[in-house]
């Protein structure tokens, strides 16, 4: 059995964008297509083959340590964005408001894709899922600019729907409308997770 299994399931890129300066705003600027490199999406503030470690890995490294960048792109599900918007009480949640790099349609339970899942475009460009992108408070200010008073509801509404972070395994062209082939790791769930959790109880 191969290490990765191709599923009879194909997603579609329905939105692309880039955030050029996170210090200025988290908001993404929509684009129609791009050429991915090993560093990620050109012009994107999250791009780079390495990054400075942050609070997410504070138990591993001193803050600011140079580490491999597996958070080059923020990839979300169109269906999950719709569900998040409904829970927030807004008609629509603009992907740009949450700093999205890519929005995909047609893959169920997208946020919980297993780490090391591959998403492959027709050009051969391939993204590797790093992990679930946990919701935070940062999009609240941007959301309030288009939906006043609603930003604070995002973090709770986006739980289990915030999408994933991903990195480029193979460079290539991507564009809105591209199908994405899905490959998932051929391995069972790790039983040690529940066993370790029980040991701490």
* Secondary-structure arrangement, i.e. CATH architecture: Beta Barrel
Secondary structure: helix percent: 10-25%
Low-confidence stretches: none
Largest sheet: 7 strands, mixed, barrel
Number of strands: 12
Which superfamily, in CATH terms, is the homologous superfamily? Answer: PK beta-barrel domain-like
Q: Indicate how many domains the architecture comprises.
A: 1
Using the coordinates shown, work out and report the CATH topology.
M1 Pyruvate Kinase, Domain 3
Give the overall silhouette: globular
Structure characterization notes:
With 201 residues, the chain is α+β, with helices and mostly antiparallel strands. The chain has one domain (4-200): Beta Barrel (M1 Pyruvate Kinase, Domain 3). It is built from four helices and twelve strands. The chain has helices at 78-88, 139-146, 154-157, 192-200, and strands at 4-18, 29-31, 33-36, 50-52, 66-68, 73-77, 102-105, 118-120, 126-132, 164-170, 172-175, 179-185. A seven-stranded mixed beta barrel has the order 1-7-6-10-9-8-12. The protein has a two-stranded antiparallel sheet with strand order 3-11. β8 (118-120) and β9 (126-132) form a beta hairpin. The chain is globular. The model has no long low-confidence stretch (mean pLDDT 92).
């Amino acid at each position: 059995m191969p290490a990765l299994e191709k599923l009879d399931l194909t997603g579609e890129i329905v939105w692309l964008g880039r955030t050029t300066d996170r210090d200025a705003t988290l908001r993404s600027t929509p684009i129609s297509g791009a050429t991915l490199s090993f560093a990620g999406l050109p012009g994107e503030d999250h791009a780079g083959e390495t990054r400075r470690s942050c609070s997410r890995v504070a138990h591993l490294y001193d803050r600011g340590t140079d580490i491999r960048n597996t958070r080059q792109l923020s990839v979300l599900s169109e269906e999950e964005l719709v569900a998040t918007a409904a829970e927030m009480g807004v008609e629509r949640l603009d992907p740009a408001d949450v700093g999205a790099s890519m929005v995909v349609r047609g893959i169920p339970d997208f946020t919980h894709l297993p780490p090391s899942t591959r998403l492959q475009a027709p050009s051969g460009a391939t993204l590797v899922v790093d992990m679930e992108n946990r919701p935070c408070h940062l999009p609240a200010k941007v959301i309030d600019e288009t939906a006043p008073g609603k930003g604070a509801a995002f973090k709770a509404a986006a739980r289990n729907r915030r999408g994933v972070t991903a990195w480029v395994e193979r460079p290539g062209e991507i564009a809105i409308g591209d199908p994405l082939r899905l490959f998932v790791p051929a391995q069972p769930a790790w039983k040690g997770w529940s066993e370790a959790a029980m040991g701490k109880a």
